[in-house]
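Q: My labmate handed me this sequence with no annotations at all. I'd like to see what the chain might look like in three dimensions before we decide whether it's worth expressing. Could you predict it?
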Amino acid sequence: MKSSKIKISLLLLTFLVGVNSLKSQSEEGTGRYSILWQPTIPLAGTKEWIDVGTWSGVSFEGLGFLQDGIAIGGEISHNWTYKRFDEATYNFSATGFEGAVTGVTYRSSRMVPILLKAFYYIDAGGPLQPYVSIGAGTLYNENSFTVGMHYMQEDNWGFCANAELGADYIFPGSNIGTHLSAKYNYANINSVLNTNNNLSRINFCLGITFIVD
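A: Here is what I predict for the chain of 213 residues:
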């Protein structure tokens, strides 16, 4: 757990430095940062590993405008899911060990994507600012599995991408607003514990946006 916290802290620091660099190169340095609550619905291999979503996700996003309506930026987010499964028999052959164990099992999954994103705002001048975006980057995935006295954990890196539809509402006369969006996320991870490499999911984001000059 301590190793995971260190990795996530380093990823967040790298992300913030990168976004600040993008903003400094943007038009007049204008941009925005968002802090978002991010519930998740699992799909494909994500759902096969743990078939429940999570309400505890969080996302940090930043962007800088290159010209009216067009911006580039980045995203780092964190989702952690945990579930207890009823008694069943688990075969260890996929992990390189021989034999099987029957018992109550526990699974967890942590996902930390880091993406470079491009944004198109339909109206970046009014209070309501709808947009579309696409992004691509890398994803850190950590899975754990417990059955009886046996505990296994692995972490992997892979490719990820997303497509997003959302809107910012900027309160008139201020540099603060609200953010609402939905994202489809795809990731490809080579995992021993979860043999389905397609870690797709849907995220819904709600939070606060700050405009910076």
